[in-house]
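Hi all, long-time lurker, first post. I run a small reading group and we've been trying to get comfortable going from sequence to structure in the token notation. Rather than ask abstract questions, I figured I'd post a concrete chain and ask someone more experienced to write out its structure so we can walk through it together at our next meeting. Sequence below, copied exactly:
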Amino acid sequence: MQNQKNDQWTTKLGFILSSAGAAVGLGAIWKFPYMTGMNGGGAFFFLFILFTIVIGLPLLIAEFVIGRGSGREAVSAYKFLAPKTGWSIIGKWGVLGSFLLMSFYSVVGGWVLIYSGLSIVGMIIKEDVVYEQLFATITGSPVITLLGLAGFLAINITVVSMGIKGGIEKASKILMPLLFIFFIILVIRAVTFEGAVEGIQFFLQPDFSQITGESILYALGQSFFSLAVGFSVMVTYSSYLGKDVSLPMSATSVSLMNIFVSLLAGLAIFPVVFSFGLTPAEGPGLLFMVLPEAFSQMPFGELFLSLFLLLFLFAILTSSFSMLEIITSAFTANKARSRTRVAIIAGTIIFFAGIPAALSSSHMAEVKLFGLTVFDATDFLVSNMLLPGGCLLIALFIGFKMDKELIKKEFYYSNNLPVGLFPMWFQIMRWIAPVTIIIVFLGSLGII
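-- Answer (accepted) --
Happy to help. Here is the structure in token form:
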């Protein structure tokens, strides 16, 4: 079994924080606030929590079980567990999905990298700066966006070339807690703004009249996106895990962290949105307009903004590391290829694939796919088509193909969970998760 002993997680906490880092990135901090703003506020948040607990968490456990049960990266895991069958398509699906996800994810990562650099040199918080115009200027400049894209991918290539440990685990133990601390500081400041109550009510009081079939699909997709499930990323991560870690408890910790960060993101963003008369449905640029506004009202605001952006950048990077890792590990599984060479080639191809998304606010703004810019179309395809599709396949694989005794062993290793918990989880994977995903998807298309 290819459980890569030379490159295992050193501690349970390191694995949990690194997995949380893979999940808590753009999904929870960048995408969640604007998706919530565009889909009715509190009702969307309620659906997001519901889907995360009922569907997302069980699927995260499933990916952990597949990864540690096989001791292999995503593509090889399914080949090992279901030899001479077509189930390896799930791993290939994940590699393709991660590639497409990286192509627009890295664009946003480039934005954060640029904002971090500008903040460090004191170029963001100024009296004459209009933050909406600053964001439009940065995203509308082909040179700036492409430099940001290249820089972000260069960091990914460097770290992934060094292997799974390569400093990520150690850094996660320090920087992820710091991210929580700075988020809490920002929330405390945000909720004290005049007019903040209206923003809190928008975020926490569900108005189900705002919910449509499409917004239900978005909430389901957001729960998958923010937990990094569906593309077998967590299969690859858990393949480096020893038997002394409880998979259900680890998955629960990651899911709760993700919900908590999403809560903090909403409480940090929406009070400021309403206090300064911004539109909650502002879209992908919401975070880049609101954060500087909030920090500008604080003592030493530029310093705090710089620190937060750097920590946010790290959270994004830990997510993107996992995506590039699944691609790299898939092509180095037999150790016939150099990890560094594969990471460089993959990163370079992703750069060229990401150019249309990077130029969606400038030279390619008029290029539309089904009425959406390349950036938005890629985001929709990944979040609302490929991720749910990958989750459906994983649920069916666990429920109907993988050896049930092996699943049960992996489920119960290193924990004292109630005996009845496994049958309940297994039935969720076999019936509830697949049926829910299919119903929500067909409902969004207006078929049912």
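A couple of things your group might point at:
The chain has 18 helices and two strands.
The longest strand covers residues 368-369.
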